[in-house]
Request: fold
Amino acid sequence: MQPASEHVSRRGLVWGGLGVLAFSFTVIFTRVAVVQLDPLFVGAGRAVVAAAIAGVALAVTRSRMPSLKQAARLAIVGGGAVLGFPLLTSFALTSAPASHGAVVIAVLPAATAAAAVLRTRERPGRGFCIAAVIGAVVAVAFAVGGSGGDGLHATDLLLLGAVVAAAVGYAEGGVLSRELGAWQTISWALVLSSPVMIGLTLFAAIRTPINADSAAWGSFAYLAVVSMFLGFVAWYRGLAIGPMARVSQLQLAQPVLSLAWAALVLGEPLTLGTVAGGLAVIACAAVAVTIRQRSTGSAAPPSLDATDAAALTRSSR
Reply:
């Protein structure tokens, strides 16, 4: 009979793995959807659908309302994870291949760790800073090389902007989830952002006639239901069960999966440059995330992670 701690660890990894698997299809289905649907409609509309689901979940569970101060911080989460990342990636992937987007976005774990360092005023040491900077430089170098070596294009700037937006939103959401709960944080961010997203969706629908086939609508449905909501539920559930350090490392597999789906689902060729660039960015992100976790673990009291994990577990039930 396996120890209880090992059983909990496996459950956390399974839930976290499901979240990463769900997110790994995001760039793929975004690429499919924006071929026929307005990128503004895709980026904003999926948040509207997810907000409706989140609103029902919050009502059914009778989750407590955030305070005014927390609502202001939720605006940061919404601005990054609900508004910034979906919209910027939707516009970028109208012309950039999904594999190209997956490699640039692969720097997100390191960017999120860096944003968390700034947000919580940690001092992770020189190694973390070096790894994070190298990862960012490699991502930019890949973007330039993938654009023919003639500088960053608009799509690359959009993708890098999406990384920054998501990193800020995730970092603030990670801190706020200790107060509101894990999945409740993204749910409240979706709900509070919904007036803006509804307005943008209606504007996009009026501006461009909606005419798409089942593949585009199926991709849109996936982005709305899975990428914007269910994926977050599984991911935060995995982090809640823990151990957080091990579960969070699973995010490094996301760009690898996205590259595989780009080849298998979309038929995009995987060039040596794409594979090498992806592996380099992922390696830098892995080093940065690992160093940050070690520095956080050594600086915090031993009971801190257990307390946070217990609180997240209770809030996720």
User: Anything to note?
Assistant: The first helix runs from residue 4 to 24. The radius of gyration is 19 Å. The chain has a mean pLDDT of 80. DSSP finds 14 helices and no strands in the chain.
